[in-house]
Here is the input.
Amino acid sequence: MAKFTREDALEYHRLKGKPGKVAIVPTKPMDTQRDLSLAYSPGVAEPVLEIEKNPADAYEYTSKGNLVAVVSNGTAILGLGDRGALASKPVMEGKGVLFKKFADIDVFDIEVNSHDPDEIIKVVAAISPTFGGINLEDIKAPECFYIEEELKKMLDIPVFHDDQHGTAIISSAALANALEIVGKKHEDIRIVISGAGASAISCAELAIRWGVKRENIMLCDSKGVVHSGRTDLNKYKQRFVMDTDARTLADAVRGADVFYGLSVANVMTPDMVKSMAPDPVIFAMANPDPEIKPELAKEARGDVIIATGRSDYANQVNNVLGFPFIFRGALDVRASAINDDMKFAASKALSALAKEDVPDSVIRAYGGEPIKFGREYIIPTPLDPRVLLWEAPAVADMAMKTGVARKTIDIEEYREQLAFRQGKGEQVRYFFQNKARTSGGKKRVAFAEGHEQKIIRAAHRIKEEGIATPILIGRTDVIQEQISILGLDFQPEIVHPRLYKDLGRYAKAYYELRNRKGVTINDAEKKVRDANVFGSMMVKLGDADAFVSGLTFDYPEVIRPSLQIHHTAKGAARAAGVYLMIVDDRVYLFTDATVNIEPTAEDLVEIACLAADFAKRLELDPRVAFLSFSNFGSTPHPLSDKVRKAVELTKSRRPDLDVDGEMQADTAVVADIVENRYPFSKVKDANVLVFPSLESANIAYKLLARLGNAKAIGPILLGMGAPVHVLQTGDDVNDIVQIASVAVMDAMGREEK
Here is the structure.
């Protein structure tokens, strides 16, 4: 866990002279007199009149549909208790940051200075027209139950008390997976809950929804077991009154299968853990210090599964896995409520996601050690970007099925739209994969490094998602062993070159291709056993539709045999490499960063045309700029002259393209420079950047990726004689899936010609 001091925390909140964690930014242009007239008077009158006629139009003309109020009176702040409404504001701002970061939802935090629940209800009801949903936070029990219940009756927008339902949703998902691992069923287990406040009651109720019997749930509050002999119980605790001789927490947990801790630190002892049933499940969720530390629980019982609310231990039960995504799904179908079915759907989605292969980005964020479903991973991590794509659609779908949605959406399209909220990079990824899926998953993609875990995981994904049919090249026993280690239900086609039944045919074909390049038949028999030669030959002889390699090989080891076997595409004098560089919401193509070291003017023409045509396949309108240190002849030099010649040749060869140069990099990408200084140029704000050498292109894309936080996709080979594509050393699974999708697109495109 990252360590910090009290002063570190305070400094963070006043950082850079901007106290607090949130701000308001405009979403529309406000640069001209016309903009001002549209934004305010007189233009704003038009949506006012439309909303008066039809209140639902507020979702069309205002931010209501993406705006949540986080409301607190500060009576139950974290584990700090009643610290007042104003003192709750840092926490409420924090909720707003999490809403925005994880689900792109805007938030106003509302701190109500009152202990009177009816007054809080009145305030929230009065301001509710502003919002698409209400998130109640850090309001003590039992008032929080009453406030939520009354607001639900009064309002036609979602009202959600996160302290109650968030923890319940996350812990229920974790419990379902823990029980699956230890081989127990909900209906057979006994649960003890330490704590009887809002979270505890909600956890108990949702556990019942999953199948736990009410009579098998025992609550313990600060006075001990909630039993039939007590007369001090509110109506919410009375739901769980048990006729029992147990009086203490120690009595209650004896023989229990599951312990939920929603109370205070260190109330559970190692002896209590020892007294539980075999394979006990312990959720010690008190913050910042749990009811028992994991190391103590594991020392007491080697068969324990334990989760906490802390990020420095495995199995973190964190509410951020719930509320941003639940509200996202509810808002996007304009739900009038968040009902129990929607909460259950959210919990089931989280449970299912934990069993999926974990992205490399998540593994890196948590130290780099492998993460897979099991005792140390029963719930997705808060930093997993897939939670948005699983949970929000589950909630939205259930809202439609239960009749609280006022807008009908296509769930698959919605999932794609959610991915777009995660950035332009995700939009591009979906474009590639969706294009590839149109092949029906029938294109066969061979992978050279079939024994590598990343390759296996990527192959599993492309098979499961209908992108392609993978073929893994390598030793069968090694690959199968790795599949077993990964715990995947996956039976791919595996080809071991040395044992391949048609190896003789491959050797003969390779010899015929290369015998006038000094290759003998004996050389050919040896060469085709090399994975990169073998993979290219699979494509050449029709045993695969595309070939992908390079995760562990140097670039030349892949590209050289592929060019020797396939040469360049018909009509292409050169192959070239392009990187898609995604900066904020913009996509640029950088070429050539991988193949041609010192291209001539004629080579640059070929490279530019290949890149422009690829841009069109991406449904981009190519605006091609040839880059140099000079602007339109400002600095005569052989290097700028070369680029200027390439521009002239390209214009002559491809009059259909918008092409210009030579120009400096900032001139190419800043429209104002062209408009103010070079208005004769048709290329303003270029998106295809042709670099004068591999050196300059390679430096540029790497600097932009590292220092400018741009997303780099590639290298993507253009002009090859067959669908052969190269990975970069260190690519993660998402990158491999992306390049495989490009390879499928490439194979499909060749069929269309």
